[in-house]
Design a protein that fits this description.
There is one protein chain. This protein has 340 residues and is an alpha+beta fold. It has a domain of 234 residues. The protein is 29% helix and 25% strand. It contains 9 helices and 11 strands. Strands 6, 7, 8, 9, 10 and 11 form a 6-stranded mixed sheet that branches. The protein has a 5-stranded antiparallel sheet with strand order 4-3-2-1-5. The chain is globular and about 65 Å long. This is Bis(monoacylglycero)phosphate synthase CLN5. It holds the Pfam family CLN5. Belongs to the CLN5 family.
């Protein structure tokens, strides 16, 4: 099963890539905090021209990412939206493996207008999960950014046909505007996507080394923000989300681009990182695909080795069974915590 999960994730990434032509090692780091905190930035950088999307990011949303202001007295309905990844291309196929995309819908009762809000990759999942190995660059080159997209309309058929469209809450226009301000701040400071959740094992109380930062995490953060604002969630719907896990012992910090791939870098480690990512390149033939799959199996399962790029730094994961797993687990809607 773990082989199937790895193939599924890799296949989604390769499907995106196949449509295209082809970011100081500190040995005295303080005692590491787990999970490693996701790094926030003071602004969102411009994307490198080398990075090109298969499909335009947020094609019908506002170019500057703005969210309309609602009247304070408006009454806003909130909807949970979920559909299989790439549903527009493959229908419900990936939904059979619980590979789902999450979003939030809103409806203004004063205007009758509907809106969709989602957070996803600027350059598709493959570029956020694996780097490009460019001949002219010493370090692996990452095209990894994720951002919020807000646009008018809820595509009922898209969400209902193979997924979920259900009302989960209500709020005032004033609360919506407060949420919108928070969304803008969250979007400017949380700029990159993270596919993997890394932990010790699938058991009930594992040590978590790294958390994912993806579409479902954006939905969770938004729901929690709404609950903090006093918005109640009354839906009895069981809310399940896709999570992609790697299982490993305690990770080891390796370094960043400068300390590994710079002039004074560790050439042995640099070579090993490139060798690790080489099989994840888009294959040009069925033969290449099969060879690469065997190489990945050898590194991850037999050699029990994985290099993770997180916060613009590399970590080495000593992999352990079951190595990799896709789950579709319940994460309940938040509750308002009333002060005593």
């Amino acid at each position: 099963m773990k082989r199937l999960h790895l193939i599924l994730i890799w296949t989604v990434c390769l499907a995106e890539w196949s449509l295209q032509a082809f970011g100081d090692l500190d040995t005295t780091r303080r005692q590491q905090k787990w999970p490693v905190p996701y790094r926030r930035f003071d602004h969102r950088p411009k994307a490198d021209p080398y990075c090109q999307a298969v499909y335009q990011f947020c094609p019908t949303g506002s170019p500057d990412g703005s969210i309309p202001v609602m009247k304070d007295a408006d009454f806003i309905e909130v909807f949970r939206l979920q559909a299989p990844v790439w549903e527009f291309k493959y229908g419900g196929l990936l939904g059979r493996f619980h590979i789902m995309h999450d979003a939030i819908g809103f409806r203004s009762t004063l205007s009758g207008r509907n809106y969709t809000m989602e957070w996803y990759e600027l350059f598709q999942l493959g570029n956020c999960t694996f780097p490009h190995l460019r001949a002219e660059a010493e370090a692996p080159f990452w095209c990894n950014q994720g951002a919020a997209c807000f646009f008018e309309e809820i595509d009922d058929q898209h969400w209902k046909q193979n997924g979920t469209l259900e009302k989960v809450s209500e709020m005032t226009g004033a609360q919506f505007n407060e949420m919108a301000k928070w969304i803008r701040e969250d979007n400017e400071t949380g700029i990159y996507y993270e596919t993997w959740t890394v932990q010790t094992d699938p058991g009930p109380n594992p040590a978590v080394w790294f958390d994912s930062y993806d579409c479902s995490q954006f939905v969770h953060r938004t729901y929690r923000k709404l609950a903090d604002m006093g918005v109640s969630f009354t839906s009895q719907l069981q809310t399940n989300y896709t999570r992609i896990f790697l299982y490993s012992g305690e990770p080891s910090f390796v370094g960043n681009d400068t300390t590994i791939f710079g002039a004074a870098g560790n050439k042995t480690v640099a070579s090993d990182i490139k060798r690790f990512y080489q099989p994840f390149r888009p294959p040009q033939s069925t033969k290449d695909f099969l060879i690469s799959l065997l190489e990945i199996y050898e590194r991850v399962v037999l050699e029990k080795s994985f290099y993770l790029y997180y916060n613009y730094e590399y970590w080495h994961l000593p992999m352990k069974p079951p190595y990799i797993r896709i789950t579709y687990e319940e994460i309940p809607l938040p509750h308002i915590h009333k002060k005593p």
